[in-house]
Design goal:
Strand content: 15-25%
Number of helices: 9
Structural class: alpha/beta
Oligomer: single chain
Radius of gyration: 17 Å
Largest sheet: 8 strands, parallel
Amino acid sequence: MTTNLSSIIDQITDTAQKCGRDPHSIRLVAVGKRVLISKLKQAVDHGVCIIGENYIQEARDKFKELSGLDISWHFIGHLQSNKAKYAVRMFDLIHSVDSLKVAVEINKQAGKIAKVQEILIQVNIAKEATKSGISSDETIQLIRDISLLPNIRVTGLMTMPPYFDAPEKARPYFRELRELKETIAQIKIPNIFLKELSMGMSGDFKAAIEEGATLVRIGTAIFGSRL
């Protein structure tokens, strides 16, 4: 596992340098879905600073066990509104907000603990019926609506392109998310601070970095196949 992690870190650095980007502008989110706590501890010991989790219950168990470590927790799975109260207590960043209903509940729960919860808007660029995310056309209005919520700060966008066996085929979806971010930034919506692009996973993170990713979500390439 440590060899895999070192290789991924080296590839992130190399890819960033080759396309003229500062490697420190790209952060690795180590995806902990169905990964043993002992492996996560080992990953943190070898440089992982962010752990991404897909499921609230699994994350709660890990959060408790790893609470003494200096790491940031990101929620990257589909979030149901009835789980928002747990999410705002554990996660520094929620990548997957795609509706006003969920945002309103996050805002409500964050207000209870005097927190401003940072979130990303998940955009379903490819309009795949099997994936969560709002359409590109509806994203700006959703962000306008969320900007009025005092205990939420939208800090970027996230996407999951269709699965391809060739990473280059994912590139247009990454490019479209970056262009959408640039379009929204030009509108200058109050209380919106778009700095993050969460895109790219084990098979296509290099293309994502070349198109502007600031957060790459990598699990299998680090930890191997899940349990």
